[in-house]
Amino acid sequence: MSTASTYADFAGREARGVSPTYxxxxxxxxxxxxxxxxxxxxxxxxxxxxxxxxxxxxxGGPVGDPAAFHRFTVANWPAVAAExxxxxxxxxxxxxxxLLLPVLVTLPQPLALLEVGASAGLGLYPDRYTYRxxxxxxxxxxxxxxxxxxxxxxxxxxxxxxxxAGLDLHPLxxxxxxxxxxxxALIWPEHRHRRDRLRAAAAIAAADPPVLHxxxxxxxxxxxxxxxxxxxxxxxxxxxxxxxxxxxxxxxxVDLVRGLPGHWISVEAxxxxxxxxxxxxxxGALHNVLALDGTPxxxxxxxxxAMTWFAQR
Length: 313
Fold this sequence. Notes:
It is built from eleven helices and twelve strands. The protein has two domains: 84 residues, no CATH class; 216 residues, Rossmann fold, CATH 3.40.50. The radius of gyration is 19 Å and the shape is globular. The protein starts with a helix and ends with a strand. With 313 residues, the chain is an alpha/beta fold.
């Protein structure tokens, strides 16, 4: 897909109905040849809309007005390019735990959680958040994670977590103001509820810091998985991570994780982790697939706001 098409697709399938600001801005960039030419000087993974918009916001640039965005980005391109090359989209959305919970509670307890692409580790606390699936609420005292769930009954209990660890090439610390500022910049402009949720989830992580290992998802995963305590069910999971991994490396990871003891939960786009026989998604928006040990279970939205279960239970 060309860079222009990537931005047009982002506007129409990801941002539409979710962020009017980013829908408008991404559509404008799709037709902005000057910015597209600048983006083409970078490796393809560094051209993605989420990354560009977050970097501009981090640098204090405007995203609400496409013309102002153009002027800022062009005038400050050396600084923008340097940040694009140095950073990755490390969105640490606690709301995605609402997608994991219906699977986690079905596994033998207690659990040893290992998140690949953990960012700051906010996805490692599914037992510390409060969940609201429609009218059903499951409270743990933490920030409320709302998820519109269809196709299955909502979970009625929380998982028991005996051990939690994360693996990331560039782990972030919620106690570092600069890292927290980057996580904040990755949240879409209108999503104040996600920004509030980030602060609340960061407070939970800061009070009981996760063990975050700097490392590669292939080279360093086996050694970290071996640290899981005996008697706990190992669960390796990742959400919207593998699209940043080259195809060959991704295939090696999938082969590796399938061979580990325990279970593997993935929440990825269907062109990133393919599955046979998927039913049509609920609508034309971009959906990910929730899968357990390679078996697809549900369509999910990117920030955990909705899930359509299609597997038989």
